[in-house]
Amino acid sequence: MNRIWVMLAGAVFACGLALGGQAGAQEMDKATAGMNAKTFFKGEPAIKQRLPEQSGWFQMPAGAKEKHEKNMFSPPLSAEAKMKAMQSLMYYNPFSLRQMINFMAAKKKAAKGLSFEDVVESLKTKGNELNMKFVGVSTPYKIIRQIYRKDYPRVEIYSFCDLETLARILEYSPEFIVFIPCKIAVMEDGKGGIWLVTLDWDVRWMDTSPNPNRISDDLRKRALSVRARLEKMMEAAATGDF
Known about the structure:
With 242 residues, the chain is of the alpha+beta class. It has seven helices and five strands.
């Protein structure tokens, strides 16, 4: 079924170009440029509000509006359904696995001269200042050095949380627990450089989605705030800002 939707969308796109010719292509280019002009890029102000629902000659199919109950899980998806959906998407995806993971990561390299401990202290201090409470740390490198390689680079994973936002997110989608609390890894690379890395879950990516099941304005605002605070925390840690 997922492959059928993708094929249908591709057929609609192809037909639109065939029927509209150059005019159709120009309309698509203008619409895309209009959306991109309103998104966050190189320090410009973030998009103030979500774009209206898609209109015009080319529209992607989307599901219907669903009834939402707080803290209720969606029905599980089978491995077969996931495989078919991802195979359809990957058919049009030019990225390698490494490129895809890089796409989903936000990262900063710490300035030279900063120790691992300096970076961690700055990270915790800034997090506390921004109401991102430190809730735990994982140090897998210690065991990796015992069972695999004694000189394995140091990697520690720190968890932070805005607890009210966490609660509201889980009301919307309990499945989101796989992403939270927010984690920032402090890692050494193969040459001794220190990096800070987190999952880049910027909800503004969804602002142009035709799906009617959008998160509330309040939850969107909270999610954007968490993303901005994670960025500030990594920036402070990367520059040694205590």
